[in-house]
Amino acid sequence: MNDAGLQLEPRDRDLLLRTARSRTAPHGLVTRARIVLDCAEVGASEAARRSGVSVATASKWARRFTESGLDGLRDSARTGRPSISDAETERVLSYALADPPPGARRWSTRAVAQDGGFSQAMVSRVRRRYFPEPDSATRLLPESSTFALTYADVTAAGCAVAVQLSSTEPTGESAPAALVDAVQTVACAAFLRRPLHGYPPDRAPDALRLLHRAAEHIPAPPPITLFIDVPLDDRARRWLTHHQEFTVRVVDPAQWPTVVHRLAETLDSRQLPELQATAQRIRAVRANGGTEFTWARASAARSTGEHSLRTALAATPNQSDESAVVEALCAALREGELLPGTEIGIRGVARRAGLSLGGVVATLEQLSSESLLSREGSSFILPVPETHDVTETYTARGLLGTAIARKLASSPKQLPPTVTEHLQHLILCDRLGLAQEAYKVDLDFQNELARAANLPRISWMFVQLSLQLRLLTHVIGLDYRYPTQEIVTDGQRLVDAFNGTDAEAAVTAWRRKTDNCARYMIGNVDGGRSSAGAGAGGLSRN
Asked: Bigger pLDDT: 142 or 84?
């Protein structure tokens, strides 16, 4: 085989491509198919460089394929040390899902070999390959930080593990053996659901559903590093553009035990009792024949506060049809089912909003007449925002807000309790790290102030602009970098000015808040536009 390249027939190229992309073919066969394809495309030298093999090896596999087709790339029977099958490898690793022998704290290499009928050498080879010693060169997370394991999920949607920064400084010491054992059990929990090398065709995972589950279950504040064994599709990528608190790393299913095992070297050793209890739960699921396991690190204070907050946010009586439709559009944007610049699916909106098709059409027509949406014939389009859209909206809100601020500051009446409640919700969002909820509460807080001013026309226009901002925020991305602490400070400054009946201070505070909102949002308009690619999911044209 020379560097001139290998000529492949179209059918041979298709066969190699299918093999190279297969999740069920043996790893060696997949690698060799990729090498042969590279030999045909860029020559043996470059193919060797890409795969980390010698030119002679790359040429050998190209020659084998020319002579014997795909069979020439398969492993042949060898003399000497026998190869270890996937089934044997999985059996060895699966001992992490079983309780150790009576009187032992862990499964030793000898104990696994005796119980499973393996040679100690074979067990040792498997463990060295999938549970290697710590290596700073292949460290997954920053060496200067310590992390806590906060989430593990094994379901039909796929496998996920999350870690978050810990307050403990790294000691530089090796992880305790008991901690490593517990993490090995978490890593091997994937075998509850799937074989070592991936998912069978009849059990295809779902990346978007896996991300939804993580967002629902993880109780601690961002940032979150999430490892998953499912490739990201377009829907999942769109979802991630609106959930910047997640950093997602996709792991090949065959490498899952190794990657998760390596997290042990970064974890806070104080978490050992918690992880040991989690490992015991996983073993109990396996012993009872279970195929799914989900665990999220407990945080009683946060869980209680977040539950109270979400309950309060869900209690929105007498919500207008416009608000319901806008919320439905925002949910579709947030979940990656709708993109700016694409047609809105009326049936999907009706399903989310709980309205009739006729009610949705009438509401979309109203939103279109107010320039919140675009219309092309009988179709309604979610516009792609430009900088001037944000500037124009906040300019109008600033002018309306000035009138509202003067009226509230000059009124002898106290602010209604709903204003105080919304401010308390903002404080809770800041304390719990709930940025997404804070943006929604902030708009509701401002709307309550507008209603309290008792200026009906101005209040109506202001609330309509809030609907537009709610859409803009979701189009651009939920995290538009307006820090929750600043939102609380700006809101408290407004309330203090109103309660102090200081009109000038109130106007100044309102303008400052409006400027802050506009500045943080405008900074992300280009980023939001870049995510508005072609094609949409569930709510588009359904």
From this structure: 84
Residue 378: C-alpha distances to residues 267, 346, 347, 355, 364 (Å): 56, 11, 14, 19, 11
Last residue of a domain, one of 264, 298, 332: 298
- Closest residue by Cα to residue 393 from 469, 477, 470: 469
pLDDT score at 527:
46
Three-class DSSP category at 84: coil
Measure the CA–CA gap between 444 and 448, rounded to whole angstroms: 6
408 Cβ contact partners less than 8 Å away, ≥ 6 residues apart: 415, 449, 452, 453, 498, 506
Note the pLDDT of residue 133. 81
**Which CATH number goes with the domain that contains 372?**
1.20.120.530
57 falls within a domain: yes
491: three-class secondary structure by DSSP: helix
Q: How many domains does the chain divide into?
A: 3
pLDDT at residue 170, as a whole number:
64
pTM beyond cutoff 0.85: no
DSSP β-bridge partners for residue 228: 160, 250
Burial call 301-316: b when 16+ CB within 10 Å, e when fewer: ebeebbeebeeeeeee
> Please, is 319 exposed, middle or buried when counting C-beta atoms within 10 Å of its C-beta (0-12, 13-18, 19+)?
exposed
Report the DSSP beta bridge partners of residue 381: 343, 374
Q: What's the token pair of residue 180?
A: 């490593």
Asked if residue 101 is part of any domain, the answer here is no
Q: What residues are paired with 119 via a beta bridge?
A: none
Model confidence at 310: pLDDT above 60: no
- Which residue did the predictor score with more confidence, 67 or 123? 123
